[in-house]
Amino acid sequence: MNENDLKVLIEKIKGGDRESFNQLFRRYYSPLVRFCIRFVADADQAAEIVQDLFVKLWTNREKLTVNTSFESYMLRSVRNAAITYINKERSHTEANERLYADESDANDPSETLQSNNLESSYREVLAHMPEKRREVFLASRFDGLKYAEIAEKLGMSQKTVEAHMSAAIKQLREGLKAYL
Looking at residue 98, what is its pLDDT? Predict the structure, then answer.
């Protein structure tokens, strides 16, 4: 399939043509899964990542803009999604390791008290953040979304998201300075 055929197909997809989307899916799904396996080393997870990308592609089809070749666009998207997945897995693993380490420190009452105070202060700072700032912060830190994704999800500019994140981090530093 050449680039001109792809451009026509993408235009049809933007218009909501399911058959064009199915054609694109059938053409690229398997190669993208094989490419993704290089990163995540798990065929099921790779398939899920690629399926999620195609779902996003269909969901956001009207906004779809491909400035490079479609293949490059999809390969970059798969790579980025795989890296996001790996980072989330790594952070979950690190969190579990910290949890087990914290359990071994659970016998020390001063450690437990300090940890509880920190968590309580953290929750309090979050509770006092303006709603949009808190939404942006939680989407970035807990949902693992990028600023551009947060901007799209919340219907604001990326600069506004950056400003909210900067303000949220400043507010957290200020509210938790006794622990830093």
Answer: 65
> Residue 19 and residue 12: Cα distance in Å, rounded?
9
Q: What is the pTM of this model?
A: 0.51
Residue length, the chain?
180
Report the CATH number at residue 38.
Answer: 1.10.1740.10
Domain boundary (85, 107, 129) is at 107
Question: Are 180 and 173 in contact, with CB atoms under 8 Å apart?
Answer: yes
**113-148 tens-digit pLDDT:** 556 677 778 888 888 889 999 999 888 888 888 999
Q: What is the pLDDT of residue 104?
A: 52
Phi, psi of 104 (to 5 degrees): -70, -25
Residues 87-112: tens digit of each pLDDT: 888 776 666 666 666 555 555 555 55
What's the CA angle centered on 89, arms 152 and 173, to 5 degrees? Answer: 65
Residue (of 17, 16, 25) closest to 70 by Cα position: 25
- Per-residue exposure over 124-163, b if at least 16 CB sit within 10 Å of its own CB, e if not: ebbeebeeebbbbbebbeeeebebebbbeebebeeebbee
What lies within 8 Å, CB to CB, of 13 at 6+ separation is: 20, 21, 24, 57, 58, 61, 64
Helix or strand (DSSP H, E) at 157: none
Domain check: are 44 and 97 in the same one?
yes
